[in-house]
Automatic annotation (TrEMBL):
GO cellular component, one term: nuclear exosome (RNase complex)
Presence of the UniProt keyword Lyase in the record: no
Keywords: Cytoplasm, Exosome
Pfam families: RNase_PH (PF01138)
InterPro entries assigned to the protein according to its UniProt record, in alphabetical order: ExoRNase_PH_dom1 (IPR001247), Exosome_comp_Rrp42_subfam (IPR050590), PNPase/RNase_PH_dom_sf (IPR027408), Ribosomal_Su5_D2-typ_SF (IPR020568)
GO molecular function per UniProt: mRNA 3'-UTR AU-rich region binding
Protein name listed in UniProt: Ribosomal RNA-processing protein 42
Any coiled-coil regions, as ranges: none
Coarse class of the protein's main subcellular location: cytoplasm
Amino acid sequence: MVGLSEGEKHFIRGGIAQDLRADGRTRLQFRALTVETGIIPQANGSARVRMGATEVIASVKAELGKPTILHPDKGKVSIYVDCSPTAAPMFEGRGSEELSAELSVALQRCLLGGKSGAGLQLIYRL
């Protein structure tokens, strides 16, 4: 448990030993989870996921384009994450731009590979 004080660590360990969380649930009780799809009509795919008080909305847009001259038989995937200022005050102003950029790069490395990600090989044959 990095970044926690000794008191916080003791509190968490005590809760685990007593099978009790701070919100009253036991270790094996999960928050309610709901998933709705097709919530953004302009997107090719979208979903809203709610877990407790946390809500995430994700959407996918797809466009067809011409391959590059160097790789005429391969497609292209671009990834962009947008952290909406309506989601939390911390996303207002430049805070959301930095987080959006960081998440976009991390997701791209995870899915497509890169300097620190093995990635999945996504090759589209046209």
